[in-house]
User: Which sequence fits this backbone?
């Protein structure tokens, strides 16, 4: 890459990128982190079955070292962020903007103490005079994701050694967990969008394989296929978006016709050197990818079905890491989205709307699930919607912070649900659970911590990140606005309602699982230490992770402890757009807490008071009131039916979209087949038959056969004569050779 | 010295070699005759190289020597195998490939 950049102070027509190629060893060699699990994948595939623990030890060792490296990289990044004062790379650009006016590349001023990301690239391949690179881009979000992914992945590896113990494809399972970790880590350190695309597809494949881990059951392989195919829809958007950006960047650079580099794309987009229309189209295409990968409404339908996979897979891939790839991709290409969707200064845009809508519909769906993992799956959809909404309103740091905290408490909840199902051999809350708090104290406590963190009660992790998102909408008018990029009041309302719904459905989930009387069969028991220890570590993180980003102006702690996460994670560089930060608001925090309490209180009153009373009266453990609102009110019944059928989206896709096109197309194809093709084929056949007879008798028998037989006769005759030359004696051959050479030499002398 | 003398020597050697290849019945002697032919070629190459002061000819002669060594190695191995199997290396009696 080096030759393409001009290393100089800001000369005319050169754009500061905010990246450098020098830096601490750990920052330059972050490629080792994805490499380790990749090696372990190969190792497990080839030697896994011969190892005493079936290959799981390789995966755990690789992830352990990767976690260590990630922590070192994180620490190195912190000191780099605070102390780096060296030069940064500049990009030479065509100094005219899209309107043909002379552009000033220095127009994008960085406010605050700048951060300089560290890149390390090698040439991947060259084609058509363009150099395609592969490499790492290490900055705040990458470092945060490296830490989060390796930590959660390591814990889930440990958990899995107990959870899938004795499975018939134990080694295979760990091999693909390793491959998944490698792909996800590759995705987060990707330096260019092409590499990102490769990693994006790789995590998709791992997701497919692991959802279908128990493929002997038809449902599981169907779910895997559904996940894969739904993701293909979005992947198309990603490919198109990335290609658009490739050529858009090329148009702004004098020395090449395209580039996949993430920093270049962002820097050019942020400095206004890419046409707005191009950015808008690219952002919309990329949104399709986000909607499928991160389960946004209306491409979210695969995510609940993906719960057919083993629970550790659900926790790792379909809650904590892979599904946030979409969110991370927005965060990575934020310059494109920020400019393309005009996030600053509006009060509604595509991304905020998609996110806000998803967060609401996901939360509603979580109410009608019997399967504990499906509750968590819809909750994941809802929380991913929260993150996308946050990015949509310009609250970048809040979104990344929520991604960070969500990974811990949602992994904790999923692993908790796995622990419960391990004990009762079912995921059905209504028929097989209840009253488990006595038998499973560790799971119960960690699940409670995770639930409270998810609901967002202070001082647990979810509260801080959720509240930052709400403040980031800038829609809080009471006692002065909170600033931000625009007055996204609608998003604030959506966020508030979702907060109440989240608290309510988690109360329901906790009641059905851990309270009341046990409704299943057998004697449930607490899981072993390899399950409870990861649970406690994640619960501990769910307790404290929120303190990583205490809001600015939070008077209870010294200023040096405020906004640490934002300081180290949010880039302040040429490749990051100029977002406006919202100011936190005490009144908003209090109101949101009250909303959460109200949601939990209403749900709690229904379950803990009324259902408990009805249970006592009925003499058995009930899961709902015998004559609840859904049996009494037509509107509630209608709503319940709508939710139970998942808004009829699956019907829409398979019945109307696929079925509607399938029927007419099939009928048309049948008619064409019968009346046009068949007749044509019949006619051709009859003609061919008649022609064939003539050809056989006249041409084949007489002309062709005569010719063939004649050729054969000639060959036999000449062979009979020529065989005498082939005496088998080497000296006869030599004599012929030399004679021929003599003749040739004679000819040469005579004629030349 | 004239170039002619070398070419004449080379031609004589070549003729002796050809005679040997065609007339001798002993396999080892045929191989030796082939060596004569190759060396006749070598003399040609080297003498022309010296005459025209062009090094590639000499380099080429070196290659011929190396290839000849390899060829005679293979040839002798074949003669050895023939002897082991038939107790006889008379080439006129070897006509398994007769058509």
Assistant:
């Amino acid at each position: 890459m080096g030759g393409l950049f001009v290393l100089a102070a800001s000369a005319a027509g050169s754009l500061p990128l905010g990246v450098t190629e020098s830096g601490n060893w750990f920052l330059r060699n972050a490629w080792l982190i994805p490499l380790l699990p990749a090696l372990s994948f190969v190792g497990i595939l080839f030697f896994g079955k011969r190892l005493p623990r079936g290959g799981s030890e390789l995966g755990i060792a690789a992830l352990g070292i990767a976690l260590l490296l990630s922590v070192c990289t994180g620490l190195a990044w912190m000191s780099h962020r605070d102390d780096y004062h060296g030069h940064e790379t500049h990009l030479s650009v065509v100094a005219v903007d899209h309107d043909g006016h002379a552009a000033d590349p220095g127009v994008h001023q960085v406010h605050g103490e700048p951060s300089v990301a560290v890149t390390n690239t090698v040439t991947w391949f060259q084609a058509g005079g363009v150099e395609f690179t592969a490499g790492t881009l290490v900055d705040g979000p990458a470092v945060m994701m490296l830490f989060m992914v390796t930590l959660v992945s390591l814990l889930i590896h440990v958990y899995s050694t107990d959870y899938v113990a004795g499975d018939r494809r134990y080694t295979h399972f760990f091999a693909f967990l390793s491959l998944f970790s490698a792909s996800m880590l590759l995705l987060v350190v990707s330096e260019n969008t092409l590499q990102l695309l490769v990693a994006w597809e790789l995590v998709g494949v791992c997701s497919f394989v692991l959802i279908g881990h128990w493929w002997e059951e038809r449902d599981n392989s169907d779910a895997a296929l559904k996940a894969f195919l739904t993701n293909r829809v979005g992947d198309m958007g990603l490919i198109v978006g990335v290609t658009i950006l490739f050529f858009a960047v090329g148009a702004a650079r004098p020395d090449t016709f395209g580039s996949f580099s993430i920093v270049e794309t962002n820097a050019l987009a942020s400095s206004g050197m890419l046409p707005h229309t191009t950015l808008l189209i690219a952002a919309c295409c990329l949104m399709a990818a986000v909607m499928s990968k991160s389960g946004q409404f209306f491409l979210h339908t695969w995510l609940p079905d993906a719960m057919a996979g083993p629970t550790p897979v659900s926790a790792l891939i379909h809650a904590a890491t892979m599904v946030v790839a979409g969110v991370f991709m927005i965060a990575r290409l934020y310059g494109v989205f920020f400019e393309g969707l005009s996030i600053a200064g509006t009060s509604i845009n595509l991304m905020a709307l998609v996110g806000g809508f998803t967060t609401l519909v996901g939360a509603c769906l979580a109410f009608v699930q019997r399967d504990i993992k499906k509750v968590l799956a819809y909750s994941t959809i809802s929380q991913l919607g929260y993150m996308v909404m946050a990015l949509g309103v310009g609250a970048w740091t809040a979104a990344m912070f929520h991604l960070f905290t969500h990974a811990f408490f949602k992994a904790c909840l999923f692993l908790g649900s796995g622990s419960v199902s391990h004990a009762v051999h079912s995921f059905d809350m209504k028929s097989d659970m209840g009253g488990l708090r006595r038998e499973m104290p560790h799971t119960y406590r960690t699940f409670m911590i995770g639930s409270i963190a998810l609901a967002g009660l202070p001082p647990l992790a979810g509260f801080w990140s959720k509240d930052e998102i709400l403040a980031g909408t800038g829609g809080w008018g009471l006692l002065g606005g909170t600033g931000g990029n625009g007055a996204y009041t609608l998003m604030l309302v959506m966020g508030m309602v979702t907060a109440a719904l989240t608290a309510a459905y988690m109360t329901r989930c906790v009641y059905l699982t851990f309270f009341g009387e046990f409704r299943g069969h057998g004697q449930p028991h607490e899981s072993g230490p390899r399950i409870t220890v990861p649970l406690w570590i994640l619960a501990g993180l769910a307790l404290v992770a929120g303190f990583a980003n205490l809001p600015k102006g939070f008077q209870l702690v010294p200023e040096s402890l405020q906004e640490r996460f934002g300081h180290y994670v949010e880039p302040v560089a040429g490749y990051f757009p100029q977002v406006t930060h919202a100011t936190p608001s005490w009144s908003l925090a209090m109101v949101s807490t009250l909303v959460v309490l109200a949601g939990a209180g209403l749900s709690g009153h229904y379950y803990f008071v009324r259902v408990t009373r009805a249970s006592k009266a009925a003499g058995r453990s009930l899961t709902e009131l015998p004559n609840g609102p859904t049996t009494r009110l037509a509107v509630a019944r209608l709503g319940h039916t709508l939710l139970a059928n998942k808004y009829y989206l699956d019907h829409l896709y398979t019945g109307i979209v696929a079925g509607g096109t399938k029927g007419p197309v099939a009928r048309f194809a049948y008619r064409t087949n019968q009346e046009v093709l068949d007749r044509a084929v019949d006619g051709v056949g009859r003609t061919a038959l008649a022609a064939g007879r003539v050809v056989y008798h006249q041409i084949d028998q007489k002309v062709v056969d005569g010719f063939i037989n004649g050729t054969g006769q000639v060959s036999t005759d000449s062979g009979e004569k020529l065989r005498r030359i082939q005496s088998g004696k080497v000296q006869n051959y030599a004599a012929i050779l030399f004679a021929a050479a003599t003749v040739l030499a004679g000819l040469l002398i005579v004629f030349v | 010295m004239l170039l002619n003398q070398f070419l004449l020597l080379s031609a004589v050697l070549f003729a002796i070699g050809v005679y040997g290849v065609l007339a001798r019945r002993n396999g080892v002697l045929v191989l030796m005759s082939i060596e004569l032919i190759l060396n006749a070629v070598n003399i040609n190459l080297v003498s022309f190289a010296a005459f025209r002061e062009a090094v590639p000819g000499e380099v080429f002669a070196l290659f011929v020597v190396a290839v000849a060594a390899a060829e005679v190695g293979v040839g002798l191995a074949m003669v050895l195998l023939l002897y082991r199997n038939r107790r006889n290396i008379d080439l006129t009696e070897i006509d398994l490939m007769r058509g």
Observations:
- The radius of gyration of chain B is 16 Å.
- Residues 25-90 of chain B form one domain.
- The mean pLDDT of chain B is 91.
- Residues 8 and 44 of chain B are 9 Å apart (CA to CA).
